[in-house]
Amino acid sequence: MLTVTDTFQGFSVDDLEAARMFYADRLGFEAVLGDMGLEITLPGGRSVFVYAKEDHEPATFTILNLAVPDIDRAVEELAAAGVALERYDGLPQDEKGVMRGRAAGRGPDIAWFTDPAGNVLAVIGD
């Protein structure tokens, strides 16, 4: 069996400084740029490693889910920080861009947005 001492996740971007500014200034996470890339410290103490890739292609799936106690407040805070929510054809999103899964008996309330590299992130109501 494989011996593992630690784990972390990672994803690519096309511009590390733009990513650092987004994750630090807009989302409020600690984001430290180092020789190898960007280390973002997430709530709860976990971290994610972000690296530059010249031929970066945005992930077509959600790379990071952020659990929030109040999705409406989270959406307002994102808007105040200049972050626009994604709208997806065929999904029942309300005027704010939130898919109200809880009320429909279809999972959590969720809203999606992208980082400067086009990677998809989500806020999910607890």
UniProtKB/TrEMBL annotation:
Record organism: Cnuibacter physcomitrellae
Pfam families in the cross-refs: Glyoxalase (PF00903)
Name the record gives this protein: Glyoxalase
InterPro entries in the record: Glyas_Bleomycin-R_OHBP_Dase, Glyas_Fos-R_dOase_dom, VOC_core
Domain of life: Bacteria
